[in-house]
Amino acid sequence: MAKGKNPVLMLSDRLYLTPCREDHADKFCQWLNDPEVYGHLRDMSEVFRVEEVKLWISQIGPDPSQEVFALYYLPEDQLIGNGGFKHLNHQDKTGEIWIVLGEKNYWRQGLGTEARWLICKYGFEKLGLKNILGEHYEINPVSLHNAKKTGAKPMGTRRKSKWTGEKYVDVHYTDMLPEDLVKPEKK
Questions:
Q1: Which domains does the chain have, with CATH numbers?
Q2: What pLDDT does 113 receive?
Q3: What CA–CA distance (Å, rounded) separates 46 from 57?
């Protein structure tokens, strides 16, 4: 199954996952350097260059500890974000989910929740994961809200444990088992 030039790894109502490619690097770099998109995730004092992002994309393929996808909006076949898993442990069948909805005109439409559901579904069905961890910074309450809407269970808070470049913030943790996954209602 393919949409345009993109092989479809998994599909939801409005989104699909495809492998990352070097031609995604320009968009990924644009999002990495946008404080509105990444300001709650990292110290914005470092500027990323397209060459660095291309190198990262080339390195994720052979790295068994991560699985990264480009996220496309199906109706327009538009690249709108990325996400996947880091800290994959294939023996324990665990991983940590991450998602970035980089195209701001697609915010506030329920697509972040749908993306989370889609990536978790891929993790459980295709990777055989038994537990998915989520990390949610206090300055991004939408992340925790989306996790709960897809069935993730709160585990606790590690206080003042993430440096954002301006201050230390609390990090809330969730986890999910395959039977916890709930498909979100369309917005």
A1: 2-180 (3.40.630.30)
A2: 97
A3: 19
pLDDT given at position 1: 42
Assigned token pair, 161: 């444990």
What's the length of the chain? 187
- Cβ-contact 33, 48 below 8 angstroms: yes
Largest CA distance in the chain: 45
pLDDT of residue 187: 66
Q: How many Cβ atoms sit within 10 Å of the Cβ of residue 77? A: 12
Low-confidence ranges of the chain (pLDDT < 70): 1-4, 187
35: tokens are: 């404080």
Closest alpha carbon to 115 in 144, 85, 82: 82
Q: Measure the CA angle with vertex 125, ends 120 and 129; round to 5°.
A: 65
Coil, strand or helix: which one is 164? coil
Cβ(53)–Cβ(29) under 8 Å?
yes
